[in-house]
Amino acid sequence: MNATIVDVLIENIRTDQGLLEQTEAQIETAKESKRQVVDRLKDYRRDVTVLLKYADDEQRKRIEELGFDFSESERGLNPVASLVLDIVMKAEDNQLTNAELYEAYVKTFKKKEDAFNYTEFNIKCRSLFNTQRLLRKKGTDPKSSRDDIISLNGRVLSKEDDKSAPKQTDVKKASQTDKKPANAKG
């Protein structure tokens, strides 16, 4: 009687091992199929991001119903980059070292753990440099980015500057004749 129970147990183990191999093969096939579909969806997202400007409101609505959110891509900034841009704009002379910028970013969180680490933070900010909204001037240590000077590209007009600055129509541009001496010929 023991031999038949053992034989049944051995047969059950063999059967389940075979089923396990079949199931694992099916899982691998399904994973590969999933990977292919995910890659296609990523390609579609890139395509839609590029072609969205040609879509009318109805097409945009249908695309958003498919789960695509384009509010971030229309702005062109992720939340970290938006926050960093605000920090730099509020900074004195619109510039900070990268370490100061990261510290200011971390201070915006109630818990430090909620902030990205320094490396991820820099990756999230890369779009600001790629679009040249911010400029990076290499610091004293070429191996570290913490000393790099991060500054706003261009100048931000404060409300006082905006009112006191002469309007373009009030400024006379020097013409070529204004620069010539009186005794010079035409």
TrEMBL record:
This is Uncharacterized protein. Residues 137-186 are annotated as: Disordered. The keyword Coiled coil applies. Keywords: Coiled coil. It comes from the Bacteria. Residues 138-149, 157-186 have a biased composition (Basic and acidic residues). The keyword Coiled coil applies. Residues 20-47 form a coiled coil.
